[in-house]
Amino acid sequence: MENNYACPPPSKGNLITVLSIDGGGVKGVIPATFLAFLESKLQELDGSSARIANYFDVIAGTSTGGLIAAMLAAPSLSNAKQPCYEAKDIVPFYLEHSPRIFPCRTGILGWFFKILQTVKVMIGPKYDGKYLHKVTSDLLGGTRVEETLTNVVIPTFDVKCVKPTIFSTFKARSSALMNARLADVCIGTSAAPTVLPAHYFETVDHRTGASRSFNVIDGGLAANNPTLVAMGEITEQMRQKSKEFPETKPLDYHRYLVVSLGTGLPEQDIKFDACRVAKWGIFGWLGRRENTVPLLQMFMHASSDMTDSYVADLFKAIGCSDQLLLRVQDRNIPIAAVAADLSTEKNLRGLVKIAENLLHKPLGEDDYKTDDRVETTPRDGRAILTYAGMLARFAKLLSDERKLRLQNMGHCMPVIANREA
């Protein structure tokens, strides 16, 4: 049976499915762990060849989330019908490459290295970004945004235009000047100020000879949580009456199924207080304190939280928050693990452990309502809902939606090979 790695269009089904992944540097290990679990549940339902890209109409990602989105949606350089990476391979990718993207030293040499980096960050970015450029280009090659197996949405911020620039498969299909190399977009959206250098690249419309230049940095300055950006791109497609999307009102959010994955927030009791912050000047706000740059940390977290709040309120207002929206965010990450560039093996392994613990952490009664379709963890004779249970439920919703679309397209069963008994 022939493999089909494209997601059937939502116009053939009941739902519009969105996956959103926050920015957060090496903390991308956390959403990557959740994605591996979700994909494993999809494979239990539909066979070992099932991939995340088969089930989501849009995969949105900012910064490290943009790189993950590209890995999930870009075609493999060796087989254009398969995505670059299985979800289970993303965490190993971070463990292997993060120490070279964000090099660090330990022991006595570590102190000298930290002093050197402190001086360096006063006059330029902390890291030169060369290895990130290399590994991203090796991974994605010359793949263009329009060539992804499902739609991607990746925010950046253009420092020359002083405004957000959103790259998406939708825009790339309609404008050759927005059809950039996916590697350039990923490098750009990851270029956090003070951490990695801004990225310059150009696009050319070979039909007209027109060109466009981009001078971009971290998309987190625009939307560290890109959920609303993705929904906005879909809304625009509906407004334009795209055949890909159902004929419905653009603001009919009852049809959305959203999985939004955060990269973690620090413990509440270690956040800076007003007495301390009141004494800071420019070096206080931009200097490294508590393993991070305070101004960037607060800006990115505020961006994520505001989007989180808006989306939750929107879904509650239309009465479907317990059914079609899943936001995963750990708000108790130890301060030692907060830094987006701490790439020691101890920290990376610690992030994996944080994600695994969160996956099976019991949720409060107010978080989500259970039903018979939700897998739970037994405790003291009671059924306890976990994120693992919620992801299993969403995997079933996604699988059913895909089967419905394929049936409406004239297929009798999902075209995913090697279906397991």
TrEMBL record:
Alphabetized PROSITE patterns for the sequence: PNPLA
SUPFAM superfamilies hit by this protein: FabD/lysophospholipase-like
Segments forming domain PNPLA: 19-231
Short motif (GXGXXG): ranges: 23-28
The enzyme's E.C. designation: 3.1.1.-
Motif GXSXG: positions: 61-65
Class of this enzyme: hydrolase
Active site: 63 (nucleophile), 218 (proton acceptor)
GO biological process entries: defense response; lipid catabolic process
Pfam families per the UniProt record, alphabetical: Patatin
Family membership noted in the UniProt record: Belongs to the patatin family.
PANTHER family given in the database record: PATATIN (PTHR32176:SF99), XYLOSE ISOMERASE (PTHR32176)
Notes concerning its domains: The nitrogen atoms of the two glycine residues in the GGXR motif define the oxyanion hole, and stabilize the oxyanion that forms during the nucleophilic attack by the catalytic serine during substrate cleavage.
Function: Lipolytic acyl hydrolase (LAH).
Protein name in UniProt: Patatin
Native organism: Zea mays (Maize)
